[in-house]
Structure formats: structure tokens, C-alpha cells
Amino acid sequence: MTIKINQDTIYHTPTQEAFNELVQELEAAGYLWTGKALPTSINNWYRLQEETCVRTYSDQKILSYDDLSYYKEYFNDVPIIEYKTKKERSLEHDFKKFMDLKELGVKFEAPQKP
């Protein structure tokens, strides 16, 4: 997933895996937590778990986190994006390709048992 570098964004990370991938990507882009710690050095996901959101402040390249309901209520002007892991994005891509082929009339059959 491409991080929106020049835009304040809220990323919803419903899994630990999504959180880990997001903070790695943000760290590579030069972001730090508000206390100036590297994003990968602090695991804030365990506090809020599937409600965890990470907010980027692009002008300062800093991050904060809070729960999804907080951001929905108080920051409805900032886009909320559900962060998808590489694996999730790959599965969605494969499914879309499958559906496109199905629409083209390609038939799929289950493999025959020997």
C-alpha cells in the first residue's frame, strides 16, 4: 500500500500484522511517533487491538494513535483508510483477476481425484 506522504491520513489497522507492516512503511518514509521514537520501536496495537488507528501528520512527519471510534467522531475531515497487509492485497488482486476471467466466460473446474 502506498502511504499518502503529503496528506494527513488515519490508517485503521485491525490486525497486529497490519499494524506492523504500516509502521514499517511509515518508518521507511521518515515518520516518528510524537515522542520522537521510531514507529517500529513501540507496539501500540496491543492497547486497542482491532480498533487501533494510526494518524499521520504529514507536515511534521509524526504519528499518533487512538481508537477508530475516536477518530470517526472527532476527525471526520481526515480520511480513514483500512490498511491492508501485502497478503490481503495479493488475495484481493487474485480474486479480482478470477472474477474478471469468470466474466469473460472462462470456466473453472475442480481438479479430479486420481
From TrEMBL:
Q: Which domain of life is it from?
A: Bacteria
- Write down what this protein is called: Uncharacterized protein
